[in-house]
From TrEMBL:
<keyword id="KW-0694">RNA-binding</keyword>
<comment type="subunit">
    <text>Homotetramer formed by a catalytic dimer and a non-catalytic dimer serving as a binding platform that orients tRNASec for catalysis. Each tetramer binds the CCA ends of two tRNAs which point to the active sites of the catalytic dimer.</text>
</comment>
<feature type="binding site">
    <location>
        <position position="98"/>
    </location>
    <ligand>
        <name>substrate</name>
    </ligand>
</feature>
<feature type="binding site">
    <location>
        <position position="313"/>
    </location>
    <ligand>
        <name>substrate</name>
    </ligand>
</feature>
<feature type="modified residue" description="N6-(pyridoxal phosphate)lysine">
    <location>
        <position position="284"/>
    </location>
</feature>
<dbReference type="GO" id="GO:0001514">
    <property type="term" value="P:selenocysteine incorporation"/>
</dbReference>
<dbReference type="InterPro" id="IPR015421">
    <property type="entry name" value="PyrdxlP-dep_Trfase_major"/>
</dbReference>
<protein>
    <recommendedName>
        <fullName>O-phosphoseryl-tRNA(Sec) selenium transferase</fullName>
        <ecNumber>2.9.1.2</ecNumber>
    </recommendedName>
</protein>
<dbReference type="Pfam" id="PF05889">
    <property type="entry name" value="SepSecS"/>
</dbReference>
<feature type="binding site">
    <location>
        <position position="463"/>
    </location>
    <ligand>
        <name>tRNA</name>
    </ligand>
</feature>
<keyword id="KW-0963">Cytoplasm</keyword>
<keyword id="KW-0648">Protein biosynthesis</keyword>
<comment type="function">
    <text>Converts O-phosphoseryl-tRNA(Sec) to selenocysteinyl-tRNA(Sec) required for selenoprotein biosynthesis.</text>
</comment>
<feature type="binding site">
    <location>
        <position position="97"/>
    </location>
    <ligand>
        <name>substrate</name>
    </ligand>
</feature>
<feature type="binding site">
    <location>
        <position position="271"/>
    </location>
    <ligand>
        <name>tRNA</name>
    </ligand>
</feature>
<comment type="pathway">
    <text>Aminoacyl-tRNA biosynthesis; selenocysteinyl-tRNA(Sec) biosynthesis; selenocysteinyl-tRNA(Sec) from L-seryl-tRNA(Sec) (archaeal/eukaryal route): step 2/2.</text>
</comment>
<dbReference type="InterPro" id="IPR008829">
    <property type="entry name" value="SepSecS/SepCysS"/>
</dbReference>
């Protein structure tokens, strides 16, 4: 409310009360002013009333909310359902323009401001999480796979004769299909087994570069966050290799923002070598609905090239979701979530190790994986292949989500490529196992309940196996008579 309206209010209600109300409003406005000036995530989270006031102020700056607006174009921010309008805080125009997702829209000053602020705040949070030297980023309304595709398509214009992407194997379909969708030929490099861990085969990557020729390689496509027993790629060594051979390097950092180790690897890789862009999911790292990702990098001009490659305008929903979330948490709230996640990783490892030992199994040693853990299932495999896969079904029906059971010898065809041992990141990992992850937002109750249900499932399978052995055993004395 401007000063003129405040003066009028003082003629209607006691001026002392109005001044008090005005001061309360100014406290909200002060927070907004600091945000606009600094473009950083506030240290302390905002109240819902401050966030809603801010979003309302942005919305009234868009033409679809102008009083008396007369729209005669084909895209005027019209919404048939008031429920949909409220869901989006009446920010209907989306972000970007037809030629650049980061461009300002003349019809939508508020939505454009939201877009710029969100990208600035997310950049600040990436620095808070550990990549201090990151230069630029933007939120894109696509999940990680399609965002990787956008990066590859941008590189196509820089390296028109390149047709190969070197990819240390990780058994996750979207990052593989991202290369196929972009029109490139993935060169799959198998991992090497070191103890229980699957690690990057650097010598194999070197051989592929020599064999194919650096000029024919679009990029190296590496990975940080992954399911154990695979561990993050050797980013520093790969980055040095890429710099030496002048090959671009794109990092799939899907859920790595929540891990200080993954972020440190990216920071170090960029320091000693070459990382052109790294891509991370919004939902996995910031607990918002699926549908958005962050493309970030160390060369502002290249990140701008990627944003200009996006065709047309885009949904503002992912940007709005992450903006609301980070304003609610504040930088201190997000750091607290990161600390709690790391603490829960230790707790989950301890509980999973205890349970594994109780059932004659072991917690696989994967110290280089900071998020995911794996427990062997050798005793189940000894009974039958069916027992291993049955465990996965049992956990799912008992509402244990996210746990992956990986049997031996699984084969899968993805976009015409056959992967032996699919899900295990290796053609011949020596044992079946179960995955569990300590991801952001996990609670002690989640771990307790998971261990309880997993214990029951394993006991049930053991009991079932014992019953089968009894029912198939020959009658007493039969073996003796047969021997005679």
């Amino acid at each position: 409310m401007n000063s003129e309206n405040v003066s009028i209010c003082e003629k209607i209600v006691s001026s002392s009360y109005i001044r008090q109300g005005s001061q309360a409003r100014r406290s909200h406005e002060q927070l907004i002013r600091v945000l606009l000036e600094q473009g950083k995530c506030p240290e302390e989270g905002w109240s819902e009333s401050t966030i809603e006031l801010f979003l309302s102020e942005l919305a009234v700056m868009d033409s679809n909310n102008f009083l008396g607006n007369c729209g005669v174009g084909e895209r005027e921010g019209r919404v048939a359902s008031s429920l949909v309008a409220r869901r989006h805080y009446r920010l209907i125009h989306g972000i970007g323009r037809s030629g650049d997702i980061a461009a300002v829209q003349p019809k939508a000053a508020g939505s454009s401001l939201l877009n710029k602020l969100t990208n600035s705040i997310v950049l600040d949070i990436i620095k808070v999480a550990g990549v201090r030297s990151v230069a630029s980023c933007f939120v894109v309304p696509m999940a990680t796979g399609m965002s990787l595709t956008l990066c590859f398509l941008t590189l196509r214009h820089k390296r028109p004769q390149a047709r190969y992407i070197i990819w240390p194997r990780i058994d996750q379909k979207s990052c593989f299909k991202a290369m196929i969708t972009a029109g490139f030929e993935p060169v799959v490099v198998e991992n090497v087994l070191e103890g229980d861990e699957l690690r990057t085969d650097l010598e194999a990557v070197k051989r592929k570069i020599e064999e194919l020729g650096a000029e024919n390689i679009l990029c190296v496509h590496s990975t940080t966050s992954c399911f154990a027993p695979r561990v993050p790629d050797r980013l520093e060594e790969l980055a040095e290799m890429c710099a030496k051979h002048h090959i671009p390097h794109i990092v799939n950092n899907a859920y790595g923002v929540q891990s200080s180790k993954c972020m440190h690897l990216i920071e170090q890789g960029a320091r000693v070598g070459r990382i052109d862009a790294f891509v991370q999911s919004l939902d996995k790292n910031f607990m918002v609905p699926v549908g958005g990702a962050i493309i970030a990098g160390f060369d502002q001009s290249f990140i701008q090239e990627i944003s200009r490659m996006y065709p047309g305008r885009a949904s503002a929903a992912p940007s709005l979701d992450v903006l609301i979330t980070l304003l609610t948490l504040g930088a201190s709230g997000y750091r607290k979530l990161l600390r709690e996640r790391k603490e829960m990783y230790g707790h989950l490892a301890q509980e999973l190790r205890r349970l594994a030992e109780a059932h004659g199994e072991k917690l696989l040693s994967t110290p280089h994986n900071p998020i995911s853990l794996a427990m062997s299932l050798d005793s189940l495999q000894a009974r039958s292949d069916r027992a291993v896969t049955q465990l996965g079904s049992m956990l799912f029906t008992r509402q244990v989500s996210g746990a992956r059971v990986v049997p031996l010898g699984n084969e899968q065809v993805v976009s015409g490529y056959t992967f032996k041992g699919f899900m295990s990141h290796s053609e011949a990992y020596p044992r079946p196992y179960l995955n569990a992850a300590s991801a952001i937002g996990i609670t002690r109750d989640d771990v307790t309940l998971c261990m309880k249900r997993l214990d029951k499932c394993l006991k049930s399978l053991r009991k079932e196996a014992g019953s089968e052995e009894t029912s198939t055993a020959p009658p007493a004395g039969e073996n003796d008579s047969a021997a005679e």
